[in-house]
């Protein structure tokens, strides 16, 4: 079993130090249509199951890295210089240290500038785009020339969903079985579906009450429903792949919605229970299901937070907007 540091060294190989000018990279946020919930290895952050996502287009994170003239590290998030004890700054520096350690113990300070155009910690997976953008920027800054698959393996050390944010479009994340995690990568699927639309409803932009790491640990350890989860994901993956290939919207929407609600049932049945929903989340779920009964092909998915993502086809956009005027349409 590898440590995080050994994992990074194995992927990077022997490196001589090459430092470039300030470097910037962008990665999109993504939402899982079949969710990842639960780790098979907590050190290497490896998932129990496969997952499948779609990117959120121009919503995501842009990260720049530049040399720090005074030798100290700086983490700047959305224009604010963070205290280095801030939890976000700690995560970023720990991640960067894995690279610095692998590159001949490179210890020079860096300035890391992160700009999210999605609310941080609002369940719209800014950690996914954040760590994917950071990994891409580190690759360019240190001129590592890693493959996309290697980038997806490394981004995963920051956040499981970040592995998928290396790519655009529909992305398949393999859980893998290798104890060293080298087969636990993401890859893009060769299908596009321009008429498939995503609408975001932000119920709350506050950071979530329980982190996904803690939520997953508690669910895996205590939820009586979790033992059915791997089989549910297996079946949902087959349905989702066939829905995407055949452009079967009802199958895509119903599978995504069932999968998300099943994940939340597992989470809610943890001991002590965790509930990521707000009353407004539940009201939106009811309204979506009611609209569907009235004939509107509309489905939803929800990550580890209160916010709802609507799934519909472009031809129904006006009808969906009239029911959910606060919805923000994702530009993909
Ligand atoms: O990437 P993490 O550790 O924040 O976990 C993501 C968990 C979900 O967003 C709920 C599901 C997923 O697959 O993105």
Descriptive account of the structure:
The protein has helices spanning 4-12, 87-102, 126-141, 148-155, 212-222, 229-246, 249-268, 279-293, 317-323; strands at residues 23-34, 39-41, 46-47, 51-67, 74-77, 80-81, 110-116, 170-173, 186-188, 196-201, 299-301, 308-313, 328-329. The chain is α+β, with helices and mostly antiparallel strands. It has two domains: 19-188, Ribosomal Protein S5, domain 2, CATH 3.30.230.10; 196-329, Alpha-Beta Plaits (2-Layer Sandwich). Strands 1, 4, 5, 6, 7, 8 and 9 form a seven-stranded mixed sheet that branches. It has a four-stranded antiparallel sheet with strand order 11-12-10-13. It is globular. The protein starts with a helix and ends with a strand. The mean pLDDT is 93.
Question: Secondary structure elements and their pairing?
Answer:
Elements: H1 4-12, E1 23-34, E2 39-41, E3 46-47, E4 51-67, E5 74-77, E6 80-81, H2 87-102, E7 110-116, H3 126-141, H4 148-155, E8 170-173, E9 186-188, E10 196-201, H5 212-222, H6 229-246, H7 249-268, H8 279-293, E11 299-301, E12 308-313, H9 317-323, E13 328-329
Parallel strand pairs: 5-7
Antiparallel strand pairs: 1-4, 2-3, 4-7, 4-8, 5-6, 8-9, 10-12, 10-13, 11-12
The site of (3R)-3-hydroxy-3-methyl-5-(phosphonooxy)pentanoic acid (PMV) has 14 residues, from helix 3.
Counted by DSSP, the helix tally is 9
Portion of residues within helices = 25-40%
* N-end to C-end Cα span: 39 Å
CATH class of the largest domain: Alpha Beta
Bound molecules: (3R)-3-hydroxy-3-methyl-5-(phosphonooxy)pentanoic acid
Number of strands: 13
CATH topology group of the largest domain: Ribosomal Protein S5, domain 2
């Amino acid at each position: 079993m590898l440590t995080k540091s050994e994992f990074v060294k194995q992927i990077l190989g022997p490196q001589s130090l090459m430092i470039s000018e300030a470097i910037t990279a962008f990665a999109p946020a993504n939402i899982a249509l079949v969710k990842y919930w639960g780790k098979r290895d907590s050190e290497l952050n490896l998932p129990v199951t496969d997952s499948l996502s779609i990117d959120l287009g121009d919503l995501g994170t842009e990260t720049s890295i530049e040399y720090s003239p005074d030798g100290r590290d700086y983490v700047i998030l959305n224009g604010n210089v963070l205290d280095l004890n801030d939890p976000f700054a700690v995560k970023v520096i720990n991640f960067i240290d894995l690279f610095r350690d692998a590159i001949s113990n490179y210890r020079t300070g860096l300035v890391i500038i992160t700009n999210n155009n999605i609310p941080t910690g609002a369940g719209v997976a800014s950690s996914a785009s954040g760590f994917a953008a950071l990994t891409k920027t580190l690759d360019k800054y240190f001129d590592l020339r890693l493959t996309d698959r290697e980038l997806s393996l490394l981004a995963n050390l920051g956040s499981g969903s970040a592995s998928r944010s290396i790519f655009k479009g529909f992305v398949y994340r393999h859980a893998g079985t290798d104890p060293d995690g080298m087969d636990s990568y993401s890859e893009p699927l060769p299908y596009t579906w321009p008429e498939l639309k995503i609408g975001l409803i932000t119920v709350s932009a506050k950071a979530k009450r329980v982190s996904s790491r803690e939520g997953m640990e508690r669910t895996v350890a205590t939820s009586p429903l979790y033992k059915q989860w791997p089989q549910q994901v297996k079946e949902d993956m087959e349905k989702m792949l066939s829905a995407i290939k055949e452009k079967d919207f009802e199958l895509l929407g119903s599978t995504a919605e069932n999968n998300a609600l099943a994940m939340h049932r597992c989470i809610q049945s943890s001991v002590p229970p965790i509930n990521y929903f707000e009353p407004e989340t539940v009201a939106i779920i009811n309204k979506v299901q009611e609209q569907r009964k009235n004939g509107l092909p509309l489905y939803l998915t929800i990550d580890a937070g209160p916010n709802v993502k609507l799934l519909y086809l472009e031809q129904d956009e006006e009808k969906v907007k009239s029911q959910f005027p606060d919805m923000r349409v994702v530009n993909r």
